[in-house]
Design goal:
With about 325 residues, this protein is α/β, with parallel strands linked by helices. The protein has a seven-stranded parallel sheet with strand order 3-2-1-4-5-6-9, with helices on both faces. Helix 9 runs antiparallel to helix 10. It has one domain: NAD(P)-binding Rossmann-like Domain (Rossmann fold). Bound molecules: NADP nicotinamide-adenine-dinucleotide phosphate. The site of NADP nicotinamide-adenine-dinucleotide phosphate (NAP) has 27 residues, from helix 2.
Length: about 325
Amino acid sequence: MSGLLSPTPKTNQLMNTNVAIIGSTGRSASAWTDAFVAAGYAVRSLVRHPRLLPNRPGIRYRRLDLDDPSTYQPALEDIDTLALVTPADPRQPEWEIGLINAARNTSVRRIIKLSVIGADFIFPLSPFARWHAEIEDALRTSRITHVILRPNFFMQNLLMQKDVIESGIYMEPIGTASISFVDVRDIADIAVIAASGALDDQALTLTGPEKLSGDEVAAFLSKATGTAIHFVSPDISEFRATLLSRGMPEWHVAALAELYSLVQNRHGAYLGSTTSSIEEVTGQSPRTLEEFVNSAFRLRRSGRGSFDWQVARRFFHQFLGDRLDRDARWPVGFKL
Ligand SMILES: NC(=O)c1ccc[n+]([C@@H]2O[C@H](COP(=O)([O-])OP(=O)(O)OC[C@H]3O[C@@H](n4cnc5c(N)ncnc54)[C@H](OP(=O)(O)O)[C@@H]3O)[C@@H](O)[C@H]2O)c1
């Protein structure tokens, strides 16, 4: 099947198109930044500490602090497309609606919003989906041309529990449920295509190609690492206590506990559904979890990894004395 547009057309027209991406040091937005640069876009990366980031061809940094609304409008000046990617947080609606309002007074003519699977339900089931649903509503009423991407759990979440996995355990409180994990690089490829206008005013639910149980994920991890990795699904009270003892903020523990309770109580079947959106838009099958695990875990084990944004972020924030509560080495890295 052929896709709507190749994600990597290098043309002068694209070089003249500005895209601003929020949080280029984060899990999704780092992949989005790489994809937009590869496609020839001039990327403005909106970050808290621009001076601390290394120079990269095709990227200019500008300061944006989500907690400081006075930085919003200057960050968006002379921008065509805004990639609205902010971290999961109860303040997310406040941040993103503030940015949408600021965009209305600038040259921004398209917003590509990263949302989450299930945000379109009449009653979104998780706190994460409820925060995104509120923002999606604001985006629709803003009258700014937009595209909404609603991905399932990221494959890259596994990297957040790399140490635990390497100790022989893959921990995920999903019981016997299955999840259709998606690779953030596939979401990034769709975002690049969305910037061309080909998906305007559409909302796409993005999943990986197959649903996988905890045991199946553990089997891929075992094969990739060459060691036995056992799937463990703690009950919710044990999960909650572990996260709190590791210093995770209470709001985040509560949100994750609500999401996983839902899954354990068999209300999370939608997280095991698959869609054909990635293949329909890109013309390529979505990346599989096996491929991701083979490259991510083998690469890291052999010590040949490229620049590690997660390590760099920890260094920056320790250096600057910022609050590190959302970046601590949690046993489970989900931030849906
Ligand atoms: N995880 C999943 O499985 C999943 C699935 C579906 C949807 N989602 C959605 O995906 C979105 C992005 O998640 P993610 O995991 O890619 O995010 P992430 O890795 O946590 O990245 C967060 C980014 O936000 C930046 N940031 C944090 N506080 C900031 C502030 N005050 N001002 C400016 N920048 C700030 C961070 O920059 P610093 O380097 O400065 O800290 C970082 O670049 C979320 O909305 C989430 O709901 C996640």
